[in-house]
Amino acid sequence: MQLDSNQWNLVYNVFSFGLVSMLACTIYTLVSQQRVLAKYRNALVMSSMVTFIAGYHYLRIFDSFKHASEGGKVLLDGSQNSFNEAYRYVDWLLTVPLLLVEVIAVLALAKEVSRSLITRLVPASAAMIALGYPGEISSDQNTQVMYGVLSTLPFIYILYVLFVELGKSLERQPAGVAETVGRLRLLLIATWGVYPIAYIFNIVGDASSSSFVTVQVGYTIADVLAKCVFGLTILKIARMKSMAEGMKDDH
Amino acid sequence: MQLDSNQWNLVYNVFSFGLVSMLACTIYTLVSQQRVLAKYRNALVMSSMVTFIAGYHYLRIFDSFKHASEGGKVLLDGSQNSFNEAYRYVDWLLTVPLLLVEVIAVLALAKEVSRSLITRLVPASAAMIALGYPGEISSDQNTQVMYGVLSTLPFIYILYVLFVELGKSLERQPAGVAETVGRLRLLLIATWGVYPIAYIFNIVGDASSSSFVTVQVGYTIADVLAKCVFGLTILKIARMKSMAEGMKDDH
Q1: Angle, alpha carbons A68-A74-A76 (nearest 5°)
Q2: How far is A214 from chain B (nearest CA, A)?
Q3: Distance CA B151, CA B127 (A)
Q4: Cys-Cys link to B222, which of A2, A23, A125, B194 (CB 3.0-4.6 A)?
Q5: ipTM, interface predicted TM-score of the complex
Q6: Most distant CA pair in chain A, distance
Q7: Which residues on chain A are in Cβ contact (under 8 Å) with B235?
Q8: Which domains does chain B possess?
Q9: What are the transmembrane regions (chains A, B) (predicted)?
Q10: What DSSP line would sit under chain A, residue for residue?
């Protein structure tokens, strides 16, 4: 894939932006733990782990892109020295279930409710990612469509659990929390929407350099929203709940 | 060993997955110490050390695999530039005894019981690993079988100590702890079972690329289960015990 120098530099710098955003967010959520009550700290730690894992993968993606390129030409043939897109799947396999657990953890629901939500969301989200991968690496259009459809089924189930099941628990949350969780849920759906769009783009789109650039920039912005902005929203919810439960607003 | 590009990429990405899982788990157990009573924190620190040591070795294994490969051909002849499988043995020599000490530490048994279990489990587990190594590097089938059998003897002794001796101590644990320790012990046996299977696979199996891929992927998944999932289970047990001893469930 031959990129012109503007395209190549855009992708390179967007990867670097993704990397440093994840690292900064990791440290921020780690050192902010004292600002929330003890019961909400685990949600913050999980957010740190999500951005830590994503930071690791952006470091690898950044290096892989650099080493797979020569004069703006990026090697994409799956050979040893080509750009390794699979880092994204390994990342999602770990971070997507963690993001869902993070939402449940910050709500501090009753133990049996938490457990029931987690035991349904975690396998569903892992299945969603794992089923997407064979389609991503295949070059056969029917296989791509089949795994695209298969991967959509757990995605719809996750939407059902988040909007219908989780919705019931939001009524008992302090003022403002339900609205923020609602926004968090929309953020999650909006950013996760980027991934199937990019997937369809790969199937029907032309193999042009501008498609490649659009997909890489789109993935990176979606990752920063779905992990960093998401984590900062989790911190905000944890602080709202901590204050509703009597923590002094001087932290 | 010539791998096709899917095989090479699978092994490469599985190593990267192992590496980042170990690192994330190390940080998670380190920062979660305040969530358990002080007497259980050493078990968590040991779990961090196990995943830290394993993370180091996965970094080395990942780099070694990359540098020993050229166009999907992996050098395995034991020369200076070949893939260094011995990192796994160094890793196990350190982490396997630590994992066993971790189990004993989280149970907080009477001092003399702990000491007696540790002085038997640590030498047995070190002997198990050390006796496997000469068989692993040998290319003579009789030598391989001999060291395989020798290494199995301490393994059986460890099973005896864990199931019979440790079993007696579990009766005095708080509700739920005995079941979780039981599951932990099964996790340990199930994942440790992968190593002798891979060892036998090396002796009787063909030297095909798919055997190589199966063994590497199998080892990595077993390591993630035996170290990360194991460590998170140790954290769960430590929390159950902390709460049974009066720690407030708000952490």
Answers
A1: 85
A2: 24
A3: 7
A4: B194
A5: 0.90
A6: 59
A7: none
A8: 5-244 (1.20.1070.10)
A9: 12-31, 43-59, 92-110, 117-133, 145-163, 184-205, 217-238
A10: -BPPHHHHHHHHHHHHHHHHHHHHHHHHHHHTGGGS-GGGHHHHHHHHHHHHHHHHHHHHHHHHHHHTEETTEEP-SSSTTS--THHHHHHHHHHHHHHHHHHHHHHT--HHHHHHHHHHHHHHHHHHHHHHHHHHH---HHHHHHHHHHHHHHHHHHHHIIIIIHHHHHTTSPTTHHHHHHHHHHHHHHHHTHHHHHHHHHHHS---HHHHHHHHHHHHHHHIIIIIIHHHHHHHHHHHHHHHTT--S--
Residue A47: predicted pLDDT: 96
Residue count of chain B, please give it.
251
- B9 Cβ contact partners less than 8 Å away, ≥ 6 residues apart: A78, A84, A86
Token couple for B166: 């440790």
Cα–Cα nearest to B5, from B74, B105, B94: B74
Residue of B nearest to A49 (CA): B24
pTM comes to: 0.92
* Least confident stretch, A178-187, A196-205, B7-16, B65-74: A196-205
- Spatial CB neighbours of A163, under 8 Å, sequence gap ≥ 6: A185
Q: Which value, in Å, is the radius of gyration of the alpha carbons in chain A? A: 19
Torsion A122-A124-A127-A132 (CA) sign:
negative
B23 contacts chain A (CB < 8 A): yes
Contact B24 A93 (CB under 8 A): no
Say which amino acid occupies B196. Answer: P
| β-pair type (A73-74, A69-70) | antiparallel
Residues in chain A within 8 Å Cβ distance of B19 = 56
CA atoms A201, A206, A211, A216: torsion sign: positive
Nearest residue, CB atoms, B250 vs list A37, A52, A86: A37
Write the CA distances from A213 to A13, A110, A135, B150, B220, integer angstroms.
12, 45, 20, 57, 33
Work out the number of other CB atoms within 10 angstroms of the CB of residue A180. Answer: 17
- pLDDT at position B237 over 70: yes
Non-local CB neighbours of B127 within 8 Å, separated by 6+ positions: B151, B154
Alpha-carbon separation of residue A196 from A11, A91, A130, A202 (angstroms):
20, 16, 14, 10
Mean pLDDT of A61-67: 97
> Which of A58, A31, A22 has its CA nearest to residue A230?
A22
